Amino acid sequence: MDLTVFAIPAFTLLLAVEWASYRFAPDDDERGYAVKDTATSLTMGLGSIAAGLGWGLLTVLAWDGLHELTPLRLPHTWWTWVLVIVGVDFFYYWEHRAGHEVRLLWASHVVHHSSRHYNLSTALRQPWTGVHHIVFIGPMLLLGFPFAMVVTSFSINLLYQFWIHTERIGRLWKPIEYVFNTPSHHRVHHGSNPRYLDRNYGGILIVWDRLFRSFEPEGEPVNYGLTKNIGTYNPLRVAFHEYAAIARDVRAARTWRVRFGRVLRGPGWQPAPAASTAPAGATAEAAA
Fold first, then answer.
1. Which of 78, 99, 141, 248 could form a disulfide with 105 if both were Cys (CB 3.0 to 4.6 A apart)?
2. Where are the domains of the chain?
3. Closest by alpha carbon to 182, among 152, 209, 212, 203?
4. CA–CA separation, 202 and 198 (whole Å)
5. Could you give the CA distance from residue 242 to residue 264 in angstroms, rounded to a whole number?
6. pTM (2 d.p.)
């Protein structure tokens, strides 16, 4: 069951409450809301729901197929629920990390990072493309977890992440900060500061980042957005600008190695400069 659609009224109410908190208790150190930015985030969220009617159906059909392939079957018990929620979160961590480290996947995920503001509307700024959930969450079905449990747990994972998109909540009690993803941890994830890039991928739990050395605590003020911000509120450009950039880079590449690198390496990957063919000593002579 996709719980995120049913949560839309709660999302709307919490957005209104957060907006009112900025209106009546502003903080100069926080970005708050901007009309155009918020409108773009909400448009991307509505577009994601519409696109999800296609991509979501494909994902569910693929997951159902994987579930039918495996002879493994786990029972519907309370401990299965615990395992499936933790398991989905573990695979989500790797999906999220791949979304930052593989440019083709980043082309979809970059949408979520394209806002220079950080508020609850940013949580709704979702991509319109991508079927990577099939690959990364699919192993849970092959392990024999009940289909409905996996789908519901994935929705729970996404629902949890809504409330952490806020500047209005500071650091929480230390044990909570150590185990769970919190607004403080996720602010770091949305930062374009060099020390914050590609950190804190966890969904519900931050322990995966601690285990796999991608954790960074919040320290210096966070600069939200991309290292090269796109400077547009046009939803179509927000949704597809990185795909267009990949296409340009692939067309300009002269070798297949570079073409594959432009698609499958990290977003900031650059091919090594070509070795100089100048005769030995020519550089020194030119410098003289």
1. 99
2. 3-243
3. 203
4. 11
5. 13
6. 0.91
